[in-house]
């Protein structure tokens, strides 16, 4: 997590769901590249812990406890970012409540929670940050490769909200490109607290999944997933927008 270069020196990034897993890794990678990072999460203690980790390695971060499914919380996050740093250069929409299970078992409330925390929160955050992203800002939204697979049994509602995020991202890339705003999607696969629990509870299924990854390993949330986000937000990707980038060791293929 040590600040090792100035690839994104002075940039201001908002990362939702930054308290653990993929969000934590992305936040750490952005901080290591020189960004000042606003860490958003429902559990304040978790994002405060990440804030301390970033500070211990020479980075700068602001922790905000907020529920991205609540519009007022989104407005509060953006206002706090502007008060602390004056602008927003990078927006990473990662947080989501996962509506998992067969279609006949997912409740209306469960599906709605996925929708509000996923595509609706993504839309609201992008809209709120738009004025500050004009002229060179970058949006990275987090999708999922599950929607690309031949069978999405048990993941239909989750795939639906993640695909909605991809559609919104493509629209933002097309509509806001003339204003200098780039918008892309990543589809990550990495170790996280939830994935660690899966590996421990179902080692045979976990081994089968690993066997389907051409590179033969799970990604690292900071080095692999966060590294891809740093690239997409850097000048090296200045001519890249509207794409979906699988960061999953080759597991899925975007057609």
Portion in beta strands? 5-15%
Radius of gyration: 17 Å
The CATH topology comes to Rossmann fold
| Rounded mean pLDDT score | 94
What is the share of helical residues?
Answer: 40-55%
What is the fourth-level CATH superfamily? NAD(P)-binding Rossmann-like Domain
For the record, give the distance between the C-alpha atoms at the N and C termini, rounded to a whole number: 34 Å
In sequence order, what are the helices and strands, one letter per element?
EHEHEHEHEHEHHHE
CATH architecture: 3-Layer(aba) Sandwich
- How many helices? The count is 8
Anisotropy-based shape: globular
Please count the beta strands (DSSP E, at least 2 residues each). 7
Biggest sheet architecture: 7 strands, parallel
Number of domains: 1
Widest sheet, order of strands:
3-2-1-4-5-6-7
* Multimerization state: single chain
| Low-pLDDT stretches | 1-5
Reading off the top of the CATH hierarchy, the class is best stated as Alpha Beta
Structure class:
alpha/beta
